[in-house]
Design brief:
The chain is mainly alpha-helical. It folds into 2 domains: about 150 residues, Glutathione S-transferase Yfyf (Class Pi), Chain A, domain 2; about 110 residues, 3-Layer(aba) Sandwich (Glutaredoxin), CATH 3.40.30.10. The chain has 11 helices and 4 strands; from the N terminus they run ααβαβαββααααααα. It has a 4-stranded mixed β-sheet with strand order 2-1-3-4, sandwiched between helices. The radius of gyration is 20 Å and the shape is globular. It starts with a helix and ends in a 28-residue tail after the last helix.
Amino acid sequence: MGVEMRARLFSAASLVPYWIAARGCRMAEAQFPLEQSAAGEFRRQDDAFREWVTADGRSGYPATSGRYHLYVSWACPWAHRTIIVRKLKRLESVIGMTVVDPIRDERGWAFRDGPGHSQDALNGFRFLSEAYHATAPTYSGRVTVPVLWDTVTKRIVSNSDDDLMRMFNHEFNQFTDSRLDLYPEPLRRQIDEWNGVLYEQVNDGVYRAGFATSQVAYEKAVRRLFDALDRLEQRLAGRRYLFGTQVTETDWRFFVTLVRFDAVYHGHFKCNLRRIADYRHLFGYLRDLYQIDGIADTVNFDHIKRHYYVTHDDINPTRIVPLGPIQDLAAPHGRDSMA
């Protein structure tokens, strides 16, 4: 975001104390109180389980067809990343998958029959928390997706989407005819660098804005977010994907935020300086990725919208789910000839 744009943006932060005093307002309640700073900033918890499945079994978890099961939500961007890599690497017959109900209450992610989600036929769990407590009986953190479950040891291997993307990309190659490599050796340094930027400013940046409980924290997160989006718009003006003509894991890390942006983050999380549809190159890039074979099947806007607008009732007390936006992600993207 340029200096001129910054100057035109209205900052309400300095007025917050006056609003509170004049109107008797209380500060917003946190969606996740244990992940909130005294300054109103959202600070995401670390992943609790980070064991690895390895092709040679040296980790104690050997890559085997049918042994591991993925618990996910279509709504969650972190889980969405693992669904995408599983799809692209053609591992659907190798690693099973069960989808939770997009509506999460105080009991956490639940297994229920419904459109696009089901009961847990593998373990009979009613709630994903049961998998956590089966692995670590004293676990007290927030229960998150994705989860990779080991059917042999009856425990969680990993709830880290970062690690699972890498495992699916490489460790199960003997069980698939896909030679796709989303983390190629020559690009690893750049991939790691950009993954960090995207996580801090974009992927988690939308949550830092949406879950902020102070005006100052909200504005800081939104400005960083749009600074990053503006830089990424410029980067994608001259290349088809983030590193040229090859799609990498970084593109998919970015995609899961972009595809939710106009439908959820723009309004629900107040990330409303611009829509992704207002960016020529980002919107074309989003459509380009969406149109790769199989990807549209991993995007469930019904689950996405119902999860955010119904589950986050502190942000949306009426739980009304908006009808829009109308967006044609199947429209021509015009990026085929880019280097």
